[in-house]
Amino acid sequence: MFAAGLAVALLDTVIPLFIGRVVSLMEMPDRPAALSSALPMLLGMAALVLVVRPLAIFTDVGSRRDEPDPLAEPLARRPPELQNGSASRSRASS
After folding, report:
1. Which region holds residue 84: left if phi is over 0, alpha if psi is between -120 and 50, else beta?
2. Residue 91: pLDDT above 60?
3. DSSP alpha helix (H) spans, 27-52
4. Which of 60, 71, 52 is nearest to 11 (CA)?
5. Within 1-94, where are the H helices?
6. pLDDT of 9-67, one tens digit each?
7. Nearest Cα to Cα of residue 25 among 14, 35, 17
8. Calpha distance 52→40 (Å, rounded)
9. Environment class of residue 82 by beta-carbon count within 10 Å: exposed (0-12), middle (13-18) or buried (19+)?
10. Hey, where are the domains in the chain?
11. How many Å separate Cα 58 from the centre of its chain?
């Protein structure tokens, strides 16, 4: 769970760096040449944002859902009168 959360956090911190790189490419005097020379970097950035980041988020959410939360367990317990449907039977008989 820690590794998945760390991966998501690191990928989220890289996004502003990507935006800065794209802005600096757009400021170049010869944009077509700059874009063609930076094409591998742009494709890598797109792959990270469109493929790797969603997979990391999916893994992070999945790892959090599999572990029980010990603080929420007492909240999930039912009162004795509601266990095994006894409350619904008592309402139906009255």
Report:
1. left
2. no
3. 31-37, 39-47
4. 52
5. 2-26, 31-37, 39-47, 53-66, 73-76, 86-93
6. 999 999 999 999 999 999 999 999 999 999 999 999 999 999 999 999 888 888 777 66
7. 35
8. 16
9. exposed
10. 2-68
11. 6
- Amino acid identity of residue 24, one-letter, is S
Say which residue the tokens 């820690």 belong to. 2
Measured over the CA atoms of residue 35, residue 48, residue 8 and residue 58, the dihedral's sign is positive
Structure tokens at 46: 């797109």
Higher per-residue confidence, 88 vs 64: 64
The vertex-27 CA angle with 25 and 33, nearest 5°, equals 50
C-alpha–C-alpha distance, residues 49 and 8, integer Å: 11
Amino acid symbol at 5: G
Residue 16 one-letter amino acid: P
* Rounded Cα gap, residues 44 and 34, in angstroms: 16
Tokens of 72: 């929420």
